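User: Quick sanity check before I run a bigger batch. Here is a single chain. Can you write out its predicted 3D structure?
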Amino acid sequence: MVKFRAHTDQNGKHVVDIECDAGENLYTTDPFDAPEIALEAARRWLQWFDHAPQGKAESIYYILIVPETWPGPPPGAHPYSGLHFKIGRSTDVRKRLQNLQTGTSGDLILHAIEPGSPERERELHEQFKSERRQGEWFSCSPALTKHVLDTWKRNNLLPPEYQAKLLELMDRIHAYRAMRDALGQAPDMVNPSINEPWHGRVFVDLVYTRLAKEEDS
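Assistant: Done. Predicted structure follows.
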C-alpha cells in the first residue's frame, strides 16, 4: 500500500509525495500550479511503476554498453568516460535489451528507466544532441551520466539483476584505476583473444575470469 502526501514547495507550487507503508518516499512529482494536476501526475507515475516491471507500460530506457576491450576511465575522468548510453523507448524493456544484446559482443546494462512517450524521447534526444554518436547511442558525457544517475534515483525502479551488474561494473572500474595507480599506465591489452599475439607487458583478462565464476556457481 502507498499513500499520497500533497504539499507546496518553497515557490508555492503544488507537489505530491508517494510514500510506502514504511514511510519511505518512492517518488515526488514535478511542481504544478494546481493541486489536482499534481495528484493526477502522481497517479500516472504510480500506474507506470506498477506495470513497467511486467512489460506493460511504455518506458524510456537508458542502456549502457561496456565493450570487452574498454580499458576503464582515463586518470581524472568520470567513471563512464569512453562509454555510451542508448536512449530509447519500449513497453517491454527487458525484451528490448535481450534483442540488442544478441547483436553486440559488449555487455549491455540497463541503467535507468522512466515513464515514456514519443514526446519525452524526442525531448531527451534534443537535450543531448551534442553527445549523439549514431542512431540512439550517445557519448557518456558528465552531463548525460548525471542525468541517468538522477533518473535512476528519482524513479527508484531497476531490476535486481541490473543493480548487480552495476555493482560489478563499479568493481571493474575500481580495479582499472588501482592498476593504473600501481603501474602508472593503462593495460596494453584488455580481454585479448587467445588466438592473437599479446603485445606489451600489461594486459587484463576479465572474460575468462567471468566464465570461471559462472562455472563455479
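The first strand starts at residue 2 and ends at 8.

User: Great, the batch can go ahead then.
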